[in-house]
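Something for you to look into today, if you have time. I want to see for myself how the chain folds. Leave the record below and I will have a look.
***
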Amino acid sequence: MAATEIAWIPLKEDSKFEDPTNEAAITLIQCKETLLAQPGCHNMMYGRQHENANMLMFFVEWDSVQSHLDFRETEIYKPFLSKILAISFGEIKLQHILYASPLKPLADAPITEFIFAYFPPTYDTPEKFDAAFDKFTKEGVAGGAPHGFLGAIRGWVHEEVEHKAFAEQGGKGKCFVGTVGWTSLEAHMAVRETQAFKDGVGLIREGPVARELFHVVFHHGV
């Protein structure tokens, strides 16, 4: 099953990948070339979090989780990782999202919203929340923002994830990821004020023990 690798990479202050002469820009171009040469790798995308500009969000679309794990066992992986570490500081967090559809079309949007919804490890009806998200995006989002909403996809994280909300369940649980493309941040904020959104948002507030939301402005250069 196709899998999207997602990594949270805290950037050093001087890592300005928007400048093509900056070390970070050169590094990310080299990383993309390396990744696209690997079996099973289809795409690499990255951008800054709007809410935390020093956080690089790094996405790689693989044909399976195993293809990524196989890459990590190759001789080229250590030099690849060293390049990433050279432009970053602090801990890098990594997960795999099993999206129902490719991320790339929404990464081409001017700004992309990511919703993380956390569930206890015993949660066993993911299809119920999938249906709730689909209904919410159709009625509560698209219905209130016909000119700003560019589409939505969803998936579940392959691994159990750590979150403080799971302290009583051993520290780990399940995570749903909803992703929405927007024409602008203002378009997203505007739809939140519509009656359609207010009537529908309860669909995705029921069930998760915690939620997180951020936006990514993907880099559309090389």
